[in-house]
Amino acid sequence: MTVDEAILQLNKVREEFLACVLGERLNQDEQWGGPRHDDEHIYFDWLSFIRKQTMKKFLFRPGLFEVTMVKIAALAMAAYESSRRKNPVDGIKRLEVKDGPHAPDAGHAGI
What we know:
Blueprint: H1 3-32, H2 35-38, H3 43-54, H4 65-86
């Protein structure tokens, strides 16, 4: 596999993951009532929800690890969305990556 093929494959996996996360967010909104319900929670609640997902026994069964990662990512997205609604800021506050190929001085925005 060439480097270009590997990058293409990685991008496909990332696109698939993001599509799954967005789909799960829609499912969560439908199940729980969307932003109105989400905004009732505080940061500790979100961390508890994520922790609960990580503690499920099926997490370690073949084929279900990815499903759990999607659920956790969707919960993190819900928490982030709720936080932004409660605490609006101009632009996204970014964490600086101090070292490595993704450091701001390497031409990439640190996240």
